[in-house]
Amino acid sequence: MIKVFLADNQPVVRYGVKSFFEGHSEIKISDTASNFEEVTSTLPKKNFDILVIDLELEGLASINYIKSLIKDYPKVKFIIYTNLSEQMFAPNALKTGVSAYVHKNAELQALESAILKVNEGEIVYSDLVKKNLALITKQRKNERLYRKLSTREIEVLRYLSEGRKNKEIAKTLNLNEKTISTYKLRLLTKLHVTNLVDLVNKAKTLDIV
């Protein structure tokens, strides 16, 4: 039996996923968490095969936190299950070592399939992501600039798009406020805009956030 640990903010998601796998012959939702603190406190106490986690989980300020967990718990496979843009976040998530990226728009059968495949050692991501990764090398430099944003730049852009101020973002990511300003300037340059409003609009147009 594949023991799965599900971490998601929403009670309805936790309930729905757990109900879907109730009585499953191969998969069991062994435990759930509603925030990142619960994840870090539960992992050392119990044995899981797979952690299914939302990138928007409360307390999960940076995907680097997941990277650290992957290092600390090498026997656990990680699956991202989120509403965040697959096009933008999946490639960077996979770079951290996660085994799969499943968008919440997909049917629960897609999550089921990912769990089964990941348990067998496969790396799972959609045809859309595969296609986008393949297209990167074929595009002209100015067409793929936004795809070269670093993981940290994407995180800062996400928080800027939510209307957060530099000081608040700095506190969330445990960084200096001046560092956030530097990331903001890099984003303006890379996306060829001159102000925050245009930056956010450009990000939405390109489906970055």
UniProtKB/TrEMBL annotation:
Pfam families: GerE, Response_reg
Response regulatory domain boundaries: 3-119
Modified residues (4-aspartylphosphate): D54
GO molecular function per UniProt: DNA binding
CDD domains (UniProt xref): LuxR_C_like, REC_NarL-like
GO biological process: phosphorelay signal transduction system; regulation of DNA-templated transcription
Tree of life domain: Bacteria
Domain HTH luxR-type: 142-207
Alphabetized UniProt keyword annotations: DNA-binding, Phosphoprotein
Name the record gives this protein: DNA-binding response regulator
Organism lineage string: Bacteria, Pseudomonadati, Bacteroidota, Flavobacteriia, Flavobacteriales
